[in-house]
UniProtKB/TrEMBL annotation, chain A:
<keyword id="KW-0813">Transport</keyword>
<dbReference type="InterPro" id="IPR000515">
    <property type="entry name" value="MetI-like"/>
</dbReference>
<keyword id="KW-0472">Membrane</keyword>
<keyword id="KW-1133">Transmembrane helix</keyword>
<feature type="domain" description="ABC transmembrane type-1">
    <location>
        <begin position="96"/>
        <end position="306"/>
    </location>
</feature>
<comment type="similarity">
    <text>Belongs to the binding-protein-dependent transport system permease family.</text>
</comment>
<dbReference type="InterPro" id="IPR035906">
    <property type="entry name" value="MetI-like_sf"/>
</dbReference>
<dbReference type="Pfam" id="PF00528">
    <property type="entry name" value="BPD_transp_1"/>
</dbReference>
<feature type="transmembrane region" description="Helical">
    <location>
        <begin position="287"/>
        <end position="306"/>
    </location>
</feature>
TrEMBL record, chain B:
<feature type="transmembrane region" description="Helical">
    <location>
        <begin position="7"/>
        <end position="32"/>
    </location>
</feature>
<comment type="similarity">
    <text>Belongs to the binding-protein-dependent transport system permease family.</text>
</comment>
<keyword id="KW-0812">Transmembrane</keyword>
<keyword id="KW-1133">Transmembrane helix</keyword>
<keyword id="KW-1003">Cell membrane</keyword>
<dbReference type="InterPro" id="IPR050809">
    <property type="entry name" value="UgpAE/MalFG_permease"/>
</dbReference>
<keyword id="KW-0472">Membrane</keyword>
<dbReference type="InterPro" id="IPR035906">
    <property type="entry name" value="MetI-like_sf"/>
</dbReference>
<dbReference type="Pfam" id="PF00528">
    <property type="entry name" value="BPD_transp_1"/>
</dbReference>
Amino acid sequence: MSDKTSLVPSENVRSGNPLQPVKVRASTIDNMISVLIYALFALFALICVYPFYSILINTISANDLSARGDVIFFPQKIHFQNYFDVFKIPGLWHAAMISLGRTLIGTTLTVGASAFLGYMFTQEDMWRRRFWYRFTIITMYFNAGIIPWYLTMRSLHLTNNFLAYILPTIVAPFFIILVKTFVESTPKELQQSASIDGAGTMTIFFKIMLPICKPILATVAIFSAVDQWNAFQDTLLLVTDSKLYSLQFILYNYINQASSLSTMVNLQNAGSTAMASLATKQTTTSIRMTVTIIVVAPILLIYPLFQRFL
Amino acid sequence: MSIRKFLYILPFMILLATFAYYPLYGWVYAFFDYTPPIPLSKSPFVGLKWFHSLVENQVKIDQLLQVIKNTFGMSGLLLLFSWLPMIFAIFLNEIKAVRFRKFVQTVTTLPNFISWVLVYSLAFSMFSSEGIVNGLLKQWGFIDSPVLFLQDSDHVWLTMWMWATWKTLGWSAILYIAAITGIDDSLYEAARVDGATRMQSIRHVTLPSLLPTYFVLLMLQLASFLNNGLEQYFVFQNSFNKDTIQVLDLYVYNLAMGGGSYSVSVAISMLKSLISVVLLFSINGLSKLVRGESIV
């Protein structure tokens, strides 16, 4: 029972084998319930997936049709000009690089630190291990609030600083719990025999624990990458310099001011002769939707990897 | 006792101390009359002035009450429907077509992985005045002028609950699905031998097995009752729904970043954190008392 009540998704989450259905002779009421269940789940699945689908087909349909709201179930007059056009918006490429950069660097460091701390917190002879473990975990439940946090970051000169995206995320209590639980489930003899063979703490960590922990570290990596990619609040609070804007922040701005952007892109394109047909002329809607797809795409690409953990 | 092993983790503990514990020092701003850019050292000490100011006149009391009402309303709705993921998992498990079940599970977890900004962008595309829903309604002749879903201020609690549910329902169900996998098959066999119908075996076997998980999650949710978070409400707020969408976290943010009243907002955020900790520990104590195990 104890691991069922635990909040940490253990191996259970990954095994995902649904329970063998119990064979009960189906009565009419049972059948009706079945139909109802199927219908409700189908409906909810549709509600979950349709917004993504709808935006996607709108970005590749003729912009005049999509602006009128005519594209509902299928794309019409398919074209991909929108995707070339939005990258002409000044700052978008840069924001993409910032998002990508913070995701790659942040994830690497978080995974490394979680692995190391998760392993170190299993070392029973560490000085005051239980205290430091609690010191780490309790931050999951308690924080000073965003304004004191903001004032701290400002006093550390971490406003308008790329490091602000990275440093606070390195020590992540939840991921540390995940790794620690995993390490505790591996046989102790592994570490003991290595230590008898003369391996030190670090050697055991790099040579033995890291390779063993690969599955859990993959989980941590995916979660932390999604967190980094999705982060919005830190940009909102700490960044005023447009050079450090992330894609999420840019998207938020675009939703509020897309009309001026579409004018700008259309003006830029007006010089080239091939442009300005109604179907590819940028509208407020087309810009906003296209950027949405660009921001959501990495999540959709990484999503199949999640399936392994479901 | 190995001090050396501690020294290995010391750099990380310093990081943690800097970003999780040092901000607590920021609480002193609540006791000073701080207006940037004048540094704190030159700001006058005002004692509890800001705490008093929260309740000094009717207007401020009303405003704070409204914010607290919103916080309770929206947290309360989430709490009221906190059993939804459990029911979702139970009924999903009843689906015998494996492919369909897998499909539903996959698709419904997807929204959990996108940010609130993206959720807002989807919401905007669907429900803004030129969005798809309004387009459809107009096409079908239901309405003449667009319905302003996003500017609506009367049903904000409900719509915020709906978006939160849309985003997290499928994902939250996973924990329960895992728990169902762990239920001993012989329990179902025994129920069947006793002539239980499908609904009866759900009621007498599945549900009781999931309740411990449910209670732990419920208590954690209770403990973070005041912490609705900022992002969801920030992206959905506009000048029309501002009064009914402001939860404590958003109110604190708007006060400081919008109005520059750092000291007041620190005072509120300090009170909020303190109440949250008291809540957490009392619920933890309650859990120990009632169920014999602590949750923290």
